[in-house]
Each structure stands twice: as structure tokens, then as C-alpha cells.
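The data are set out underneath:

___
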Amino acid sequence: MTDLHGRVLRDARVFSHGPDRTPLEVRVDDDGNFVMHGVGAGPEVRLWIDEDDHARLRLHDICVFPNQVTDLGNVAMAQGHRIRLRAVDRAGHPIAGAMLTCEFRYRHMAHTVQQNGPNSCWTTDERGMCTSPMLGLCDHDLFIEADGYRRVWVPNDSQPLCGTVDLGDLVLVDEPLIVRGRVVDEAGLPVAQARVEFCLGEIEPTQSADDGSFQLVTWDGTRTHAVTASKRGYTTAWSGEEDDGQITIRLEARWILGRAIDVTTDEPVHVVSMQLLPMYRGPNGELLVAHCSETQWEDLGNGRFQIGFRSDGEYRLHAVCANGLEGRFDLVVPEDRQPPPEFVVPCAEPVNCDENDNDDRETERELPLPTRDPVCVTRWGWARRNAPNMDVRRGCATHAASPVTWLWCERDKLRFPHGSSGPWFTVDAPGEPRQWYHISPTQDDGFLPRPTGSLRGRVMDIHPDLVGHVWVVAFCNAPILVESRVDVDGSFFFPALPVGIYGLRAGDDSCKTLFSEHEALRLDEFDWAANPWPGAVRVEVDAGRHLEEIEIQHDPTGVHLGVCVPRKQRATKYLFKSDLDVRSGCKCKDQLAMFPRQLDCPWCGCGWRFTCSSCRETYVIAEVRETDLTLEDIGRRVLDHDLYGELTDDEVHEWCASMERALEYFEVGDLVAYLDGTHIPLDATRIRFDGHYARHELNELPQARARHDPAAVDRILGDAEYWRHRAHEQE
């Protein structure tokens, strides 16, 4: 285990699971090495690696062969950052014991997010403060909850790549989230007794009333809730919802009526399950069937059924009936969305499928393998790949990663379901590079090698702080999507790619939608040769040819999360509570001072005390220190506590300008007092100035005298007569 510069990490912890899901954990030794025993053999063994100063690393597609030692070589971990926040209620009081949960994620081709190992939980202290463990770039979700408060998602869109980001105060609401709305039909008439529920969560569903109204209540405020409504005779509809808003869910009567019959007896047959699968055109114009679809259907008895659809297009209906019968029926829903008339689905016993079928059957083929060693065979194809399956891994090169089916074999022959043959197979053997093969659906002479080439290149203009977070994806007009992590010097390498035309794109872990599912599936075969992907670098891989010096710009399109790359800048000077302070109710350390808002009663303390931005207690002596926060960040934080109503940019800029003037002549380490609108060095003498309320003439500050005589500051500045006697003339 190393960092990106090759330095050994001696405190890393490695986690996995045994064959029976038993947790496994080892620590690296002083040389950075680890050995994990008890790992079950398989094609997709997963490891999670944690280290205190680096982001969690996931190794996803490790092939572990029986009775073999799998050597991962050097595995590098990228840098991370921490989150600090303070939980408060709506009155600004700290909430102790609130639990902050970090759900770690990883990405498949930068747009699918899934669980990445065990969660981490920690609680706030008596001041409501907490700091997270090391986090990666956009690879986590944070949630906070406390008894009697709504569970909320912690916003963390703008993230640094290292250091600690202070999110300031996070306000928890002590009221549940209430979602109200109405369910109506296409004509706007109310729909009664519709089932209404949240798409996510475990909240009990409700039913709409006679006027179509409904109300849902939840303490889970972690997301913008999607609400669904359903009723027999209508397709399920959903709507997004914001806090305490009114929504309208419109149900549509979009149903297809059909009847299933046994072709041998011409009698109706009972339907057990039903799927309506969208069809689309593949890269070569062939008609392909999606193998994932949410199907809503109802059994009407005597072989009759109704099934819902949502849009026009071509569909394949697949029915599984009683007595082991199956039936398929292709239909077209026109653009006006009017359903076709009732149709008949002929059902019979299933037979072997040909090369163009997408369904796997129970019959098997047996082919000799290209090696007698144990191998892991991966079948690739359009039939079951309806979304890219890509693991974004930092620190370790990732090989081809859009497997359709893993076929594990420990003998010299491979059995696999008939109909699973396709144009692309890969074979992994211990100590051997991955090989690409083709299996003919008719020939039984084994795996036919696919000619390959290789390419090497460099990603340009990578910010130094993004090293370890950048990857290159190679894709073509076939079911091939492979990924390689970009090295420290910006280089990348694909050792073996089947012959063809590829597009290359560079991205980082903050690009959630760099490659969309629609683009991945519906490539235009006529446009591919000229423009394989918008913004991609086009390369052509020939058999046995090695391409060098391919340059790719690190300027990916797609939606970014506003990642904040740290910039070298001068630290900000600001005021913090001094350790030498007297007459203070504040016990906090390293908390920002709030800019005093002086009223027309300065003797109460608003004319000569600072306020802590954390606990709201006051004190009289502050110290100038450096902070990584910008003055604008500080201003937004302290003004949010101090103002009523919406905070404007003009107010923030005005505050920043006044603070720059106030602290211009102070140096780090200076002790500062506040008096009547002016910041004054604590050791100043012969003080003469006109303040907001009064004119002051002092040989020394009462705050300075208070270090020797604690009651002096209250005796002088806490006396209303001191202020009234020196007050300016009032109009």
C-alpha cells in the first residue's frame, strides 16, 4: 500500500468478506504489505482499504483462483478531505449527541452510485461539533439525525481535495415533513382510493380521499421525496415534492388488453408473470430488447390480462404461464399512445433460442478452453447490458469492466447456457494478461481469438490536486467499455483492445453524468466513424499495432458538482477568542468572533464585547489569528447568525470591506478589544476617538485593566452613566 507518490502507508486497514460473508480484516505491515487469508475463490472479490489520511479505496474486480495467491502489486491511495460542522436547532442552540452517518459510494462509469463498504458514524459533542473521517472526492452521502428532529442530508457539493472544509452550522428541524396533494385523472377529476406512498423509505402508504386529497408524514428529510400513486385501471404515476408543498399526481388510463392461450389446445392458460420490454435499434441496426423494465400488469382471469405502458414505441411482451408454458408477442404502440386492440399471446413449451434471441435457456453447450489452468470467463454482449457497469478505481489500473455474465470454471471445458454465445468473451488466467475471444453459436471448435492492439497516451492539463482522481474510458460501437486510471505523470495505457474504432474520454470522480445510459446504448452506426462520441478523441485500433502519444484534454462535459480545487493564497486574518480573556462566559476554543452589532444601549455589552459564533456567549479580549477560510466565507457564516431575513451579496461585501479596514493594521498574534464601533490594540494608551455612541478619552482600555482587576471593565463600561455623560448630541 502506497500513496500516489510511492510512499509506503503503514497504517492502512484492508477489509473483505469470506465465502460465508464472514468479515475479514488485516493491517499492513511496516513495509506496507498485507496478506489476507480465507478469501473465497471467485471472479469479483472485493476489497476496501481505509487509511487515516487518504480516501477509502475499493478494489472491485479481483479474480481469485482456487489454491492460488493473487498478487495485487502496488496499490496506491488518493488524498481525501474531512468535513466539520455544528448541529444546532432553529434557535441556534447546539445539539449534542446528534449522529452523523457517512454512506460511502463508488461509481459505475461515473453515473451509477452504489454502496462502497461499511458506513461510518460519529456523534456531535456538547457544543454540537463533529469532524468526519477522511472522505474521497464526491464518493459519499452524509446524513444527520437526532431524537425529536428531522433526519436531513448534509449538503457537501463544493468539496476540496484535501484538508478540512467547515460547513458551519447545520440547522435541524423539530417538525416532521408533511406532503399534501391530490390524485386526479386525465380530465382533472379526483381519483379516490388510490394508493399513495413514497418511492423510498419505509413509510406506511395511504389512500386518497373522495376528493382525491392525501397526506403523507415522515421524519426523513434527507431527500426531495418522490411520491407515487397507483390504482387498478391506471398506470402508476409519480411526482417530486418539496417541503410542505401541494402536489398533483395525474393518473393515466394506459392499458393493453390481452389473452394467453395454449397453442396445442387453443384453451386459455393462467398467466403467472408478465414483462413488457422496450425494444430499440443496436449499433448495426439490429433490433435489441432491453432486459430490465418495471412492468405493471393485472390478471383478469380466464387467461385475460391487462398491462400498462408509458410511451409509444416497440415492445416485446414475455408471458410465463402455468404448466411451464411461455409466450412472446411483439407489438407497436403508435405515437398517439392509443393501445392496440386486444391481442392473443400463443403460449407453448420453451425451445432453444438462436443467435438473435436474448433469453437464456436451460440447455447447455460445452467447449474446450484455450488453457487447462483455472480461468474466469466473462461474457459480453448487448443482450443484458442495459447500462455501463464500470468501477471507478483510484490508484490501480482497471481492466474491462462491463461484464454480462461471469462463468467460473475449474476444468478444461466450459459449460454455459445455450443462447449465451455472443461476439465478445474475455478469459482471465493466473499470471496471464486478459485475452479476448469470440464464440460462434454453431461451431464447436472452442474459443476463437479476437485480434487486439494497444494504445498509450497522456491526459493534458490535470490540476496537481486531481492526480489519482482522473481516469480514461475507451468505448466503441460494440459492448466494450474499458477504463484505465491516469498515472501521476498523466499517462494511461490500454494493453489489449479488440480491433475497432474507439472514442477516448478523460474525466474525474466529480463527473456524475459524463456518460449517460442513453448514449451508451443508442449509438448511431452511421455517425460513429466520423464522430464516435461528442468531445471524444477518435482512435482506430488495428491488429498487433501499438498506438503511442495520444493526447486527451482533461475537460470533460457533463454535470459537475462544483468541486473546489484548493488554490495557493494568503491566509485570512480574523479574530478569535483569546486565551487571556477575562469576564467571559464562553468556553469554546478556535471559534470565530462575530462582528458586534451595537444597539442604542452600549452599556449592556453590545458596545464593548465580542460574541462567539458557536455558543453565543460574550467575551472582551480577542486575538488575531490566521484561518484557511476566506473573509467572504466568514462573513456569510457570522452574518447568518446575526441578521434576520435573507442575506444579500451586498451585505456580505459591505461586511468584508469593513472588516478589512478594521484589521488592516493588526498582525497575527495581536490582542484586540472592541469599543463603540472601533477595534483597538489591547495595549494602546492615551486613547481619543469619537465612537458610534459617545466620545472617549482614556489613558488605557478598561479591557486591559481587567486583566489585573476583573471587575474594572464592568464597573466602567457597564455603567450607563459613563456612556450618557459622553454621548453625542441626539436629534
